[in-house]
Write a structure and sequence with these properties.
0% helix, 7-stranded mixed beta sheet, 4-stranded antiparallel beta sheet, 120 residues, single chain, mainly beta
């Protein structure tokens, strides 16, 4: 079994910052891409940012220049530094990982989500 555990969500004022973390644990052989997605109330889940095992990144246009994704391969952990937060960034943020288990099965795993609320 593999699981992703997110942390770092909360309430922040517009213009503020938050840092999300997501740690993968369990029967992991290797992790390929990791990423963050979000789902606002009444909207579909959307991509926020992804990062490959080699460090290549991809961002949604709405967060470019404000959010930074990074990862620590030794800790199987991905981070999302969010700066200059806006009310429209309010959503449940989900961590995602594409990986191979120790039994060499390909898995796509999701975290349980962490709520980010941007409000004054």
């Amino acid at each position: 079994q593999v699981q992703l555990v997110e942390s770092g969500g909360g309430l922040v004022q517009p213009g503020g910052s938050l840092r999300l973390s997501c740690a993968a644990s369990g029967s992991i052989f290797s992790i390929n891409a990791m990423g963050w997605y979000r789902q606002a109330p009444g909207k579909q889940r959307e991509l926020v940012a992804t990062i490959t095992s080699g460090g290549s990144t991809n961002y949604a246009d709405s967060v470019k220049g404000r959010f930074t994704i990074s990862r620590d391969n030794a800790k199987n952990t991905v981070y999302l530094q969010m700066n200059s937060l806006k009310p429209e960034d309010t959503a449940v943020y989900y961590c995602n990982a594409d990986l191979f288990s120790r039994s060499y099965r390909y898995l796509e795993v999701w975290g349980q989500g962490t709520l980010v609320t941007v409000s004054s």
